[in-house]
Amino acid sequence: MEEQINSFPQVLTLAGTDSGGGAGIMADLKTMQSRRVFGTAVVVAVTAQNTIGVQRSMMMPTEMIDEQCASLAADFEIKACKTGMLGDAVRVHCVAENLRKYDFGPLIVDPVMIAKGGAQLLADDAIQTVKDELLPLATLVTPNLVEAERFVGRKLQTKAEVQAAAHELQQLGVQNVMIKGGHLDLATNEAADYVLFADHTDLWLSSPRIKTKRTHGTGDTLSSCMAAELAKGATLKEAVYTAKAYIQAAIANTIQVGHGHGPLNHWA
Ligand code: PLP
Known about the structure:
Elements: E1 10-16, H1 24-34, E2 38-49, E3 54-59, H2 62-75, E4 78-83, H3 89-101, E5 107-109, H4 126-134, E6 140-141, H5 145-152, H6 159-170, E7 176-185, E8 190-196, E9 202-208, H7 218-231, H8 236-252
Parallel strand pairs: 1-2, 1-4, 4-5, 5-6, 6-7
Antiparallel strand pairs: 2-3, 7-8, 8-9
């Protein structure tokens, strides 16, 4: 019998691992698998982690990050990529250098700073390096509200303040900006994300807020879902809507794993 050859777009995550399987590279690869693209991964950091928290993290030597990128560039046709936990300024610089050196397609920067459990996943002094080196390379940056506040250096409490922050981030060279949970209307209990596109059009994505602590890895999942959709040829706007729906379904149909902030359901 002849072999049947199927082809899938190849997508790359440059991020940290989560031994607990719910966030980081593990969430990225599960999301990519579920979106029917072929996931590849450059390990930038390793965490000892479960649903209760991050017990320890360790950075990869930069030579090993370089080697992993070189291996992929020599053999794969990466159609889109994303960054997640990068740890410190040295690793941010190293990843940016590799992204300048190789064409891995459109880049989504998920500027992971602090885990929901409180662990610091990016050193404070690396935030400036992300702004200087990574954002100018990015198609889209996806900070949550706290990360957006760290980028602009002030509290964001109203819709107008969130929109102004997104414009400010765009001026750093990133084409499109998505600020997650950018406005929580306590009256209607709606969570909303603000998206500002390269052509200066924008939108608020609003969804009912689901009461759950099982949201470990939502940021990673959102950004890898969008990278997967871009790799398949979707427009950014289409990718945003698909990823939002994917996250909503994953949060609404939770699974029982671990004793803390449980992981998402990638079969939903
Ligand atoms: N661990 C790693 C390696 C991550 O990349 C992330 C991503 O944000 C987290 C933990 C945090 O996950 P969460 O804050 O969704 O629990």
